[in-house]
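User: Structure please.
Assistant: Input sequence and predicted structure:
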Amino acid sequence: MYDPETALKEPRSVVLTEKVARKLFGMADPMGQELKMESRTIMKVTGIIEDLPIQSHLEFGMLASYSTWQGTEFTNEGVYGDNHFRNFYTYTYVLLYPEVDPADMALQLTELVTTRKKVDLVSDVFTLQQLYEIHLYSDLQYELKATGGGVKIWILLGISMLILVLTWANYFNLSVAYAFELSKSIAIGKLAGANQFQIAGQLFIENLFVTTIGWLIGVIMAITLTPSVEYLFEIELSSMGILAN
């Protein structure tokens, strides 16, 4: 519900996500409504967009027009100006041609900034980071979204494999023991006059009972542990379609 060509063209215009719009205005139409930012700047809602998927690297509830930050009340503070290189809270995404080497482009960016900067920077070296590497391998400050950590993934994978191996070994031992007991049970059943259909039915009911008990335990554990998993890994399992409410 917005025009991408004009929604963020004018100063003091903002685009909200559906979630933020509902939080601020309820069921009322948010288009054209005004917001007060930091008790000084009046912003006008010029568009509404869908909520971003949980898997997205981007995370925001509001987008303001860039021309807003060029206003006098911001540039006088020396924070948001176009030529202020100490603004470390901006994010720049560059789409390179396939034949362009990211390392060469980083050198060109460093040379460009070095020739145009008016103040000393904390670092005069600029680097490019692949978009797909941000979630697992970025250790930079002020990322748009909390990163997952590749080391954590490998640790969890190792623990999962260990549990799988232990489970397989335990299942193998139980299967061997159960085979001996099963052979005795079948022999006793035949001696008692049971036919093959009765024996098969008994085995089916026993396996169905064990499977049902295991399924119930799994469901209870999933419901009980979901809040802790979401908090620990900063994810929403219900939003990802893994666990429905």
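Residues 149-192 form one domain.
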